[in-house]
Amino acid sequence: MSMTTIAILIAFAAYLAVMIGIGIWSMKKTVGADDYFLGGRGLSGPVAALSAQASDMSGWLLMGLPGSVYALGTGQAWIAVGLGLGTIANWLIVARPLRAYTIVANNSMTLPEFFGNRYHDEKKILLGVSSAIIVIFFLVYTASALASGGKLFNTVFGIDYHVALLLGAAVILIYTFMGGFLAVCTTDFVQGSMMFLALLVVPIVAWSYVSGSFEDLLMQTGVDAAHYLSFTYNGDHPITAVEIISNLGWGLGYCGMPHILVRFMAIKNEKELKKSSAIAIIWVVISLSLAVIIGLVGRAFLFPVILGETAGAASAESVFIEMIQKVFMEHLPMPFVAGLFLCGILAAIMSTADSQLLVCSSSVSTDIYKDIMNPKASEESVLKVGRITTTAVALLAIFIAWNPESSVMGLVSNAWAGLGAAFGPLVVMSLFWRRTNLTGAIAGLVSGAGTVLVWDYLPLAGGQTIGAATGLYSLVAGFVVSLVFIVVVSLVTRAPEQAILAEFDEYKNYSDNR
Question: Where is pLDDT greater, at 277 or 268?
């Protein structure tokens, strides 16, 4: 084993040891289910902000997005624009009301529990449906993060993809299993900082080694520089209105992401919430911009090496890894520093996988086991079921990610669409439309998730899926369908009972006077 590889391994080992150490520390502070799943609603502003954004962006930010831009050009940046706008809207419009309403609605700890309490769902239909949706789509989402980790270790160390997949999953499982929400948020804070540092430093250093005309270098890689650098082109063709709408539509998913929304619910107070909003918005705008720049600079910097040409292909998604290795192993022989920056990619991967594991765990143990199956369950038994579920979900996600050809971008796209279409419209209408009722809420959940599944998986359009035939992202279609169902079904069925309306008014007064 070379000294370079040893130095990188030391960096990785130190990073992973710190993450496990945080898990051990957090375990001592985790007493009951409220601590394990919501941290006792005691998150500080900076921790909440970086935790939310790190858990949101995942390996997609450092692998999926740069890989798409590298392969197809600046036209892929419309996704970043949509996500940036969605993040800003989520923090400024949804965060404060959601935190207030979950407190008023019987101090709800999870999104399904909030829905159940919001609509006084005594039969617990909302709990069951929303928990099932979370488990289904978060399994795919968690698989995308684990696949990113497998590709990282495979590219850097030449470790077999499957061995790498198991290694990354094991570390994430250990600290999530032990420390729960506090461990996840604390590690996410560290990981978000590392991601930002890697995004900031690497493209600047790489650009300093690009010599000659940037446009000429792009032409040598086989692309039309003018089209490649244009927002109006997507690869080799002019970008269409449907493609722009689909890419911007990614932003709709934010108000329906349980692993992000739970951070809003856990923030300590209004002062910390304002601080979180500012930090999160600045972080995401800068990080998304730098991820796009990495894809563009990588095209010229890595030449004459040309990675895969298809967006989502494993080779294209390794552009940031290749840049780090070339900068800090060839131009600047600093393998330990290279290892630390590669840990930034691992941080992005782990910060999402741990959050998704915890959300799945809370849905099964709190919403299904305690609220539906065993209402008299003790805190200790709920905590035990939560940890067992965390392990089971991790194993299922490994199974889904077992194929080394699986696309990080593709897996994220499917999961993001399903969660955003199912929960996004209902979260918005629950917070801002007093007339929304239980029947409308159920209709919105089922129609949103169902539209995505039909759109992406059933070959109903001449042997193709509707998504493939139209080019329209399923999240856009599912969001619109869910919104329509919520409004129409709520209007044609019985109005909410007076107790629900009174609670809505209480929440509005609570929110307005804070």
Answer: 277
